[in-house]
Amino acid sequence: MRGVLKGFALTAGFGGALGICISLAIAQAPPSERKSGFEFMSPESQATQQDDFSNPGMLWVAEGEALWNAKAGATGRSCAECHGDAAVSMKGVAARYPVFFAGSGRPIDLQSRINVCRKTNQDTTPFPLESRELLALSAFIGRQSRGMPITTGEDKRLDPFRARGQELYEQRQGQLNFSCANCHDNNWGRRLASSVIPQSHPTGYPLYRLEWQGLGSLQRRLRNCMIGVRAEPYPYGSQEYVELELFLMTRAMGMPLETPAVRP
Amino acid sequence: MARALINVPAKAKRGDIIEIKALISHPMETGYRTGTDGALVPRDIINRFICTYNGEEIFSADLFPAIAANPFFSFTTTATESGRIAFRWIDDRGQAYLETAEIAVE
Questions:
Q1: Is residue A101 part of a domain?
Q2: What are the residues of chain B with a beta carbon less than 8 Å away from any beta carbon of chain A?
Q3: Inter-chain residue contact A54 with B6, CB threshold 8 Å
Q4: What are the residue ranges in chain A where pLDDT is below 70?
Q5: Which residues span the membrane (chain A) (predicted)?
């Protein structure tokens, strides 16, 4: 049953020396209290994100723009030859991903959708998931929707997949036996070691994490959390990740897209 | 492969203090990390950054392995005359990456 896990106290030992006690009751923040990870950052990190000349994610956006205009594959076509000016054709696109993809009868995320285009329309090999090129193109496309409200999940065909994403979000896993919701719904705003726990609203992916010293996707971030609770991460591109992405983006519906965001 | 983003105001009044920003894409590999084979990944950092204004050096810095990837510099100078502001990043292999920007001073 969604909503209640009452009166439960959990003690997790860190390094055998420290212990924390957290009382758990799943409760997603109401829409009026939804916050982007941006709001949990230091003013310095916020300033880094807001200035396009200091936001390192813009390096990937610039690379993505070059790839957008580069001819590729056996057909010798660039993205721009079909799609034209990305500022027009890609406006709002990233804000609605993952979308339902009729070709597979499943939701698909932006990175995989770019690869479908590479394979079918450019007749060339897809970029490996999480490769610099694919992140660059995703960041460039995402940048075209910056500031626009997230609209993911409006398509009714996505409902069963979103429900599975929610199940995964609320399912305990790993040696520490935590669900995503245990931290991000129940304890947001508090600290895990020195880091503030944000609400899980993925408003800025792909984003530049200072910890990564690079750009990464939401799937990479989900892997981080899974390793954190000592669960075995799914492989990149797995259906589970796409369903989680879909659920998380739907929760963030209406919030402005920040791609490329900066996070600690 | 390096790619840089620089920001120099296109126009300024003589005597104005202008802010210059320079961000470059670089892994800044420290030389202390091991790869999947257990061997050390060779050091590969940008170790020098120089900015010149019509040929005269106005800012330079030595960089070390503790500096994060994609180093970012922000500094100020006085707009004295129209001309070219040039940026040069030099890495451990001796390769230099160059960028320039024009400024009009009235």
A1: yes
A2: 3, 5-7, 21, 23-25, 27-28, 68-70, 72, 74
A3: no
A4: 1-28, 31
A5: none
